[in-house]
Amino acid sequence: YDPKRKMWEVRPPMPTPRDFLTVSAADGVLYAIGGRGSGVAVEAFDPKANSWRAKRSLPTGRYQACAGVLNGLVYVAGGARTVGTSGSESLSALEAYDPKSDTWSTKTPMPTRRRGATCAVLGGELYVIGGSLTDYVDTIRGIVEVYDPETNSWRTEAPIPTPRLFAGSAVVNDSTFVVGGYPALTVNEAFSPFLHV
Question: 188-191 and 175-179 as β-strands: parallel, antiparallel, unpaired?
C-alpha cells in the first residue's frame, strides 16, 4: 500500500502458504517467519527486486509468535507448536536472525510461555505484550515482559490494563500503542517507559 498515492499494488505471492505467521522488516527487506502450515519457513521479500528468497529455517518451528528488530537482528518471541495430532503447547523461546550472515542464535527464553502476544521495539528493547498461555480464552493474560539485548535478560513491566491476544501494536512518538485483539476488542492503550504516573 502506498499512502501517498492511496493505492494498493499486487506483488509476487509468498512462496509458502501459511497463517498465524509473524512478519518483520530489517534493512528494507520484509521477513515472513514461521506460521501454521510451515512452522520453520523463513522467506524474505525484497521490494527493490520485487522477489522472494528462502532463508535459513527458524530453529524452533512455531506459529502465533511475534517479532521485532533490534540492532539489525530480527527477534522472534514465543508462539505455539503442534503436539501430537490435535494438541499444541505454548513456547517461551526467543531466537534472533541475522540477515547479514543468514544465521539464527538462541537467546534467553521469555519468563512466561505464551502465544498470540504482540511485539514492539521501544528504547532499544523488545516488549512482548499480552497473549495466552494455552488455546483457552481463560488463559489470556496482560503480561508485559521486556527483553534487553545488551544483557540478554528479561524484566517484567506493568501489565496491560486490558488482557488480550492477537492484538496489533506500533510505536509512535516513544509510546507503544496496542489496538484491538481477541476477544473482538476495540480498545486502544498506550505505554511509554519514559512517562511515570
Answer: antiparallel
Angle, CA 89 vertex, CA 116 and CA 178 arms, to 5°:
10
Question: Which DSSP category does 83 fall into?
Answer: E
pLDDT tens for the chain, residues 1 to 197: 999 999 999 999 999 999 999 999 999 999 999 999 888 999 999 999 999 999 999 999 999 999 999 999 999 999 999 998 888 999 999 999 999 999 999 999 999 999 999 999 999 999 999 999 998 889 999 999 999 999 999 999 999 999 999 999 999 998 999 999 999 999 999 998 876 54
Q: How far apart are CA 72 and CA 29, in angstroms?
A: 11
CB 82 within 8 A of CB 18: no
> pTM here?
0.94
Q: Which grid coordinates are listed for 6?
A: 492511496
Residue 66, CA atoms < 13 Å, CB-side half-sphere: 25
Q: Which amino acid is at 114?
A: R
Question: If we measure between CA atoms, which residue out of 79, 32, 78 comes closest to residue 57?
Answer: 32
All three cell numbers of 187, joined, read 480498545
